[in-house]
Amino acid sequence: MRILIIEDEVTLNKMLAEGLKEFGYQSDVTETLKDGEYYLDIRNYDLVLMDWMLPDGNSVDIIGDIKTNTPKTAVVVLSARDDNDSEIEALRAGADDYIRKPFDFDVLVARLEARLRFGGSNIIEIEDLTINPEEEKINYKEQEIELKGKPFEVLTHLARHRDQIVSKEQLLDAIWEEPELVTPNVIEVAINQIRQKMDKPLGITTIETVRRRGYRFCFPKEIN
């Protein structure tokens, strides 16, 4: 499970990231709305945990965009505002939960777990192709495909951004925890595995190479 933390209090965001890591969550941390929107554009998150007031704006203003782009991503707002009107405003804007500061960390984790548990499915369905990120499973016309690890994550990321051309650098940043420690050719290896283990046996095309720009997910179609 991957969580994006948008919180401008450095001590607090560090505590949140380290604490959530102990519970098995991967976290990205940013201190501004602008950087938060950047991460949301390149990565897929199960949950966004964000402070209400940030140096460059009001986080509640971007909840609608998050829900439009990734409807199954849970959004939890943290705020020092302890009035009911603020909580109602955040929830009506699309937040899944509202947690008032200061908070007990164990209670926070329990509430995040509840949101992740009941937040809905992130299954991708495109005609006869089904990609289940939660169980790392792929089915095409009721046939299960054996594709695991990074190739599966690359396929899933491209499928979620199927209207976009995604560069190697964006894929590295989105999927590898330390992208600076790997070379871009790992993307080529992953794409090749997708084509060898999935596309060729099934007679479909799922990914096209856009020269000098990156890769794009293609709607599954039979190869003539």
UniProtKB/TrEMBL annotation:
Modified residues (4-aspartylphosphate): 51
Keyword Membrane on entry: no
UniProt DNA-binding region: 121-219
GO cellular component: cytosol; protein-DNA complex
Domain Response regulatory: 2-116
GO molecular function list: phosphorelay response regulator activity; transcription cis-regulatory region binding
UniProt key word Cell cycle: no
Domain OmpR/PhoB-type stretches: 121-219
UniProtKB keywords: DNA-binding, Phosphoprotein, Transcription, Transcription regulation, Two-component regulatory system
Database matches in Pfam families: Response_reg, Trans_reg_C
GO biological process: regulation of DNA-templated transcription
Name of protein: Homeostatic response regulator transcription factor HsrA
Species classification: Bacteria, Pseudomonadati, Campylobacterota, Epsilonproteobacteria, Campylobacterales
